[in-house]
């Protein structure tokens, strides 16, 4: 019987409508605690002189290296935006509006923080005492010179609130927060053009998942249709099918966070990928929640899989920065998977696993219907490279970076280092082509969601 193109669309669209209506009534998501309403996180005030994440400000895992001072006469000055948010009090002691100038990423984080402050303390507003510095009042290399840093207080200047204000800044998405002084909190962000901001959450090609039967496979050799160890909506260990790769870059060298546990697991992941953990291993009945990997610190607990098919907590004993080859983000039907034995989400950028799982519902439905109706597995059409032979030992996959920011070593190195004799225009053309190729390796649906979020939520989705 001849299949008409419109017949292929009727069933998927009909089920999509039913699924959407069902969500409006029920609205549940997967993972630990499935079926329960999200609990409001209990915020813990930061201590004086504490900073988060636990790296130096210019480390890759935090706000990254300085890119140079911006003056009013420089071209980069046009990249700064002016923040006229009426819910924020700007000190502006110079009377030049300098404190209102900042990068777009910094502005977005600051605006979210302003809302959080008003919700936490009704009638109180966020106050900015210092943002972009054009007068040289800070040490050389300060991110204030680039509009990437702000010093903040509350407008009532009650210093006992500043510890909680710092934690609210972490929640608002600042890449580095430092309770620097009894009189203010220092916050900073990554560069708007930073590769870590543009990229989603991923794992290196050497990371391993477990297939049915117990065999392990590297992400670089994983393919849509494979079934991998995951956690179901009811909290049971299952084998969930890989539908597609949301992000897949095979040969690029990238920087990751490395979370090492007391049981010997080592999860290597980008900072803004979601990992299920409990801060300080507190077991107070709230269960494990999905947090950005950048929030993980020594003493927190992650969930690991056991040989008996169960899960149990394992404490993180160290957090470091590593570099490796390839970036992979597999989407499973369950929305979760175990990578190198540690439970993680399939999602990144948005620190809400349930919301992300719902947002990717239509994509999961499309792939499921295609398999159900036509018995086909949709693939990305990208041939994967098997790094298994090259990654027989963990040491060959990852190299740990020192606290010194080494980002300049890796920026386009695998192209430019081999072609140092090329003319500058040709080098720029190669860089542009390489950047375009990496962009196309992000799944179209993920790019679509990013655009929608930016338009309708005014939400700058930061990366790993």
Automatic annotation (TrEMBL):
Question: What are the binding positions for Ca(2+) 2 in this chain?
Answer: 94, 130, 133, 135
Q: Where does Zn(2+) bind?
A: 144, 151, 186
Chief location bin? endoplasmic reticulum
Q: Domain of life, per the record?
A: Eukaryota
Q: Per the record, GO CC terms?
A: endoplasmic reticulum membrane; extracellular space; Golgi membrane; plasma membrane
Q: Where's the Hint domain?
A: 200-306, 308-352
Task: Quote the record's binding site residues for Ca(2+) 1.
Answer: 93-94, 99, 129-130
Signal sequence region? 1-27
Query: Keyword set for this entry?
Result: Autocatalytic cleavage, Calcium, Cell membrane, Developmental protein, Endoplasmic reticulum, Golgi apparatus, Hydrolase, Lipoprotein, Membrane, Metal-binding, Palmitate, Protease, Signal, Transferase, Zinc
**Any single GO BP term:** intein-mediated protein splicing
Q: Which PROSITE patterns match?
A: INTEIN_N_TER (PS50817), PROKAR_LIPOPROTEIN (PS51257)
SUPFAM superfamilies from the UniProt entry: Hedgehog/DD-peptidase, Hedgehog/intein (Hint) domain
Subcellular location per the Swiss-Prot or TrEMBL entry: Endoplasmic reticulum membrane
Q: Which reaction does it catalyse?
A: glycyl-L-cysteinyl-[protein] + cholesterol + H(+) = [protein]-C-terminal glycyl cholesterol ester + N-terminal L-cysteinyl-[protein]
Q: Kindly list the GO molecular function terms attached to this UniProt entry.
A: calcium ion binding; patched binding; peptidase activity; transferase activity
* Family indicated by similarity: Belongs to the hedgehog family.
Q: Oligomeric state and partners?
A: Multimer.
- Write down what this protein is called: Hedgehog protein
> What is the originating organism of this protein?
Austrofundulus limnaeus (Annual killifish)
